Amino acid sequence: MKSYKAAIVYAPGDIRLEEIEKSPLKSDEVFIEVHKANICPTDLRGYRGVKQLDQPEKVGHEFAGYIVEVGSDVTQFKVGDKVTALSWTPCYHCQKCTRGKYSACENRKMNMGGFGEYIALKESVVYKIPEHMSLELASCTEPLASVLKANIEVTPVQAGDTVVVYGLGPMGQLHLQVATLLGATKVIGIDLLTNRLEIASKLGADHVINPSKVDPIEEVLRLTDGEGADIIMVAVGGRAEAPCTETAIKMAAYGGKINIFTGTYPHKSIELDPNLVHYKELIITGTRSYNPKMFELALDLLANGKVDVKLIREPEISLDDIKTGFEIHGTKDAMKVAVNIR
Description:
Elements: E1 3-11, E2 14-21, E3 29-38, H1 41-44, E4 57-58, E5 62-70, E6 82-85, E7 88-89, H2 95-98, E8 109-110, E9 118-122, E10 126-128, H3 135-138, H4 141-154, E11 162-166, H5 170-181, E12 186-190, H6 194-202, E13 207-209, H7 216-223, E14 229-234, H8 241-250, E15 252-260, H9 274-280, E16 283-286, H10 292-303, E17 316-318, H11 322-328, E18 338-340
Parallel strand pairs: 11-12, 11-14, 12-13, 14-15, 15-16, 17-18
Antiparallel strand pairs: 1-2, 1-4, 3-5, 3-9, 3-18, 5-6, 6-10, 7-8
């Protein structure tokens, strides 16, 4: 094989499927035949004009497939292995890497190219998939790992907590399932879209709130006997994130924690009453990506059926329809758009 198809973003609104020349495989790399992938908002930023593109870029970083070639120094994998991979390759040597903060590596390389027929990656960032596990499930390991980091390491959910998930898109639906797994007594989902509220109820939310019908602050306080929520995951992206964060602060319990989970593009500031933070001893934080430990846990939870992604990974499209996928992702008609390469 001399070349293969891959999706490349050239400018806002301009994504193309092109033939990419196959480069010689490096000694520490594996060559993966991609079968299943998913669209993430990170993939869309250049296409939607919220990130400047200095040059055309490959896209796609949530994927799974089979190894079809291994480098001469590769020892952990063989041809035919089912695999998925981290979405970035850290340097392992910078100050952040030596402290275990791999997702913030100063020299990290994004492993983009999942919306292509093949991708070459270093052995160190690739993970085997259990034989019984589907590639569809494995392609969701990366987003679940980010959710696990938020709920376990950054704003730990503890038994007895009331958790509000603000925004019930794909990541919000994962948040509410993880909060339940961690022992939250009450999980409340908030979203404007009826279909997303229905999915949340099917996936275990104890209560759902449509803020177009009731005041979400008053409703959270009512459902918690006036106490408010212990943990609030703000999983709303884009322009809506800032006002939703402002609302989240007002529905937090004494000692509550607010996690700004998604990026805000285009950038927008929030208005903050410091007295709310001061007198209620609130913690406002954020979560950036994940780490290898959380990635491994995510793979295990998915392999053992602990987290359901069937209602999240939809609709499904082919690689040839990647432009359509980029257009509909994040709309009311789509959750995490699934790209079936094969």
